[in-house]
Design a protein that fits this description.
By secondary structure, the chain is mainly β. Helices cover 0% and strands 39% of the residues. It is built from no helices and nine strands. A hairpin with an 8-residue loop joins β8 and β9.
């Protein structure tokens, strides 16, 4: 069993995906590289663009996954969805370098 690799990244851009009801494209900086991560937050946030520029936690060692014809290279961590609570981002208490590992 592979250990989950969770890292801090800065959401550089939030972009619309044509014909997607739930997904948005996040361009995320992990310090030495960027990744495209698709996140199903469109219905959860009035303005998904409000998370642009924020640091958040991401699972980065998942196999790339194709959704809506695009490849997602990770998964955004949020809290609340599974319990029916309006989801919120998991964020560091203070800014840390992009790519910092959790644990």
């Amino acid at each position: 069993m592979k250990k989950i690799d969770v890292r801090v990244g800065t959401i550089e851009r939030v972009e619309e995906i044509k014909d997607a009801d739930e997904l948005v494209r996040l361009i995320v900086s992990f310090g030495d590289h960027e990744r495209t991560i698709l996140a199903g937050i469109k219905k959860e946030c009035e303005d998904p663009g409000e998370i642009q520029g924020k640091q958040a936690l991401f699972v980065v060692n998942l196999a790339p996954r194709k959704m809506m014809g695009e490849i997602s290279e990770g998964m955004l961590f949020d809290i609340g969805y599974a319990d029916g609570v309006k989801p919120v981002l998991v964020v560091p208490e203070d800014p840390v370098p992009d790519g910092t590992r959790v644990g």
